[in-house]
Design brief:
The chain is an alpha/beta fold. The protein contains 18 helices and 13 strands. Helices cover 50% and strands 13% of the residues. Strands 10-9-8-11-13-12 form a 6-stranded mixed β-sheet, sandwiched between helices. The chain starts with a strand and ends with a helix. The model is unreliable at 313-358, 375-394 and 433-503 (pLDDT under 50).
């Protein structure tokens, strides 16, 4: 069987691949990719850019696992993700995009994993284990193997550098401040002082990098990794004061450039406190210990799904995280970041505006597509059965079309009713004109054929001419019943009645 453990630490993503049966395993591959998660934290939340960096690196690790035909694998994270506030959202996004669930281990478990993988040093007299990482410091007493007795200090090299170091490396004054802070934390945590420990075992990638610089500076050779305290003290002084310190670090541990000098200051401070006489460096650490614990059943971790990944959905739909440089991203993802953020930063405000503009454009495009689709459907002659089936399948779109058809039908009925009413009024007016209209020769308008315009005679036109200016615009030329309708030459209905009385 071939197994693997992937570790998201504060300064890198590392991979361990081992194979074997039972408790005897042989290391096949050790690999590390530099990625500092703490560089992508915004108010203790991992930014969108940080999430993309993390998932891209994990996808490369996943490819390696597939190529090596690993049978079972686990993804763990230590202090790098213990302190972030949006861990649940980040872990869910990582699992969805990479198929790798994150097993978050606490400080005591991290120290216990170091202890399990380095039990071969338990035979040393009064031995302690020390792991100085980017996000925390673990201390184990080999005489106290219980997990609850492990000590985890909640500060790391990345936090110390951010807090006390203005440049790349600490100055003499900054180194003194770091030393004072570390001793204060050690006192508050109850770390032992002199005459308790005699041997120290150093573990972790950062302390192994310290040894690489130490060995090159003093010309140390040999398979056994040992450090003398006096030489470590001299190296630390050189790294703090010398102008060529960066070249020494870049030559041996370029990925630890920003933390290595701070690591030497912290290591020298703690070793002086413990006053140990023998210092050894181990290549084994958290990943090796976790693999032993999970295979033995002492730890229950969620394994990585090494099958085929499902089709990924858009990234911005899966997680709400702060976007780094939202103003530069633009478009759809930026608008969402601006909408979901607090709106306090300029970049998020600009992102929101850009998102709205983009949303309007998409809405216009969708509307144009809908109109085109409706036009195409209108050109197709459907049978009632097909129409009913189309409406059932269409869902919402079918209901909208049905509603539109009802509205159009209602409008047509209303127009038809209005037309019939107008025609009825015209017929009624004609009947009234015939029954009680003016006598023969009176000035009336002849009935116009239906749908045609009336042609007035000259007398009626002359009679109405003085009154046109006061008549509302658009009024029709109709005879007006009453005393004012007739003249001497063209008498109205009232004039006819008067003649009848005289006769």
């Amino acid at each position: 069987m071939r197994y693997a453990v992937v570790d998201i630490s504060s300064t890198s993503i590392s991979l361990l691949v081992a194979e074997g049966e039972g408790r005897v395993l042989d290391v096949v591959l050790k690999e590390r990719e530099n990625l500092s998660m703490l560089h992508y934290l915004e108010e203790r939340e991992l930014s969108g850019r940080g999430l993309e960096k993390l998932t891209d690196a994990l996808m490369r690790v996943r490819t390696t696992l597939k190529n090596l035909e690993v049978d079972r694998a686990w993804l763990i994270s230590t202090a790098a993700m213990r302190g972030i506030r949006n861990f649940d959202e980040v872990s869910a996004a990582v699992a969805a995009r990479t198929g790798m669930p994150v097993n978050l281990i606490d400080g005591n478990t991290e120290a216990y994993c170091d202890y399990v993988s380095n039990q071969r040093y338990a035979g040393y007299d009064r031995a302690l284990l020390l792991d100085i990482g980017g996000g925390s410091v673990e201390v184990c007493d080999f005489s106290k193997p219980a997990k609850e007795e492990m000590i985890c200090l909640n500060f790391g090299l990345m936090g110390l550098s951010r807090r006390f170091v203005k440049g790349i490396h600490p100055t003499e004054e900054e180194a003194k401040r770091i030393k004072k802070y570390v001793l204060k934390q050690a006192d508050e945590s109850g770390l032992p002082k002199k005459d308790v420990f005699k041997n120290a075992v150093l573990v972790g990638s950062i302390l192994n990098a310290v040894y690489a610089v130490y060995a090159d500076y003093f010309g140390v050779k040999g398979e056994e990794k040992r450090i003398e305290y006096k030489k470590l003290k001299a190296l630390t002084k050189h790294l703090v004061e010398s102008s060529d310190r960066s070249m020494l670090i870049l030559k041996n541990a370029p990925e630890k450039l920003y933390v290595l000098v701070t690591a030497c200051v912290v290591l020298k401070t703690l070793l002086k406190r413990f006053d140990v006489t023998n210092i050894v460096v181990s290549d084994l650490g958290v990943k090796e210990g976790y693999l032993q614990l999970v295979l033995s059943g002492e730890e229950q971790g969620l394994p990585i799904d090494l099958g085929e990944l499902p089709e990924p959905a858009p990234k911005a739909d899966r997680i709400r995280v702060k976007k780094a440089g939202a103003a530069k991203a633009g478009g759809r993802r930026t608008g969402r970041a601006g909408t979901k953020g607090a709106g306090k930063k300029k970049g998020e405000t600009e992102g929101k505006t850009a998102g709205k503009t983009s949303g309007k454009k998409r809405a216009s495009a969708e509307k144009a597509e809908a109109v085109t689709a409706q036009t195409a459907e209108a050109e197709i002659k459907e049978t009632p059965a097909n129409t009913e089936a189309t409406r059932k399948k269409g869902g919402r779109a079918g209901k909208k079309r049905a509603s539109a058809e009802k509205v159009e039908a209602a409008k047509a009925q209303a127009n038809e009713a209005a037309t019939e009413k107008v025609q009825a009024n015209v017929e009624d007016a004609r009947e009234k004109s015939t029954v009680s209209g003016p006598a023969e020769g009176a000035g009336t308008l002849p009935a116009a054929p239906e749908g045609s315009k009336a042609e007035p005679n000259e007398a009626a036109e002359a009679d109405r001419a003085p009154r046109r200016r006061g008549r509302p615009k658009g009024s029709k030329n109709r005879p007006k019943a009453g005393p004012e309708a007739g003249t001497e030459e063209n008498a109205g209905p009232a004039g006819s009645a008067t003649e009848g009385e005289e006769g």
